[in-house]
Amino acid sequence: MIGKSIKEGGHMYRFRINEREWILRFAINVDADDIEKNIIFQSIVKMGHEILHYNHGDSFILFDKDIGAIIFSIETIPSYILTVANIINEVDWFQIKNGIVSRKKDQH
Q: What is the per-residue pLDDT for 105?
């Protein structure tokens, strides 16, 4: 079960999954406003127990149509910490098709 969250200073959220207390924090280089941070936090809450399948040092990506690709890293030693390492807007995504590199989304 996911417990209540506590927002601390705009850069950190605390939440519980089962008996584990987690911290969601945002790396200093992440440029996200409070609304985006709250959307990211609510998405993590919805993921719930999926997070428990990751180990220390693992990473994953969450795609949001408005925010972009949200890169997370996980620490479990000594505490359970989920860090938003970066957010990459969709206009900065690239793809490789048949050996040709191009932007994933047209900038116009």
A: 74
Number of domains present in the structure of the chain: 1
For tokens 């997370």, the residue is 72
To 5 degrees, how large is the angle CA 69–CA 18–CA 7?
55
Mean pLDDT of 9-30: 88
Strand order in the sheet with 59-64: 6-8, 12-17, 20-26, 80-88, 68-75, 59-64
**Are residues 76 and 85 in contact, defined by beta-carbon separation less than 8 angstroms?**
no
Q: Tell me the residue range of the domain where 17 lies.
A: 6-103
Residue 26, in any domain of the structure:
yes
Contact 30, 86 (CB under 8 A): yes
Which of 4, 14, 28 is CA-nearest to residue 84? 28
Please state the pTM of the whole predicted model: 0.84
